[in-house]
Amino acid sequence: MNQEQIERLALPNSSKIVLVVVDGLGGLPHPETGQTELESARTPNLDNLAKKGICGLIDPLGPGLTPGSGPAHLALFGYDPFRFVIGRGILEALGIDFPLQEGDVAARGNFCTVDRTGVITDRRAGRIPTEECTRLCQLLSQIKLNGAQALLSPVRGHRFLLVLRGTGLHPDITESDPSQTGLEPNPIMALSPEAEQTAALAAEWVRQAKAILSDSYPANMVLLRGFSQHPAIPSMRTIYKLNPLAVATYPMYRGLAKLVGMEVVNIDIASSIADEFATLSQHYASYDFFFLHIKQADAAGEDGNFEEKVRVIEEVDAALPALTGLEPEVIVVTGDHSTPAALKAHSWHPVPLVLCSPWCRTDEANEFSERACARGGLGHLPSLALMPLALAHALKLTKFGA
Question: Rounded CA gap, 54 and 363, in Å?
Answer without folding.
Answer: 6
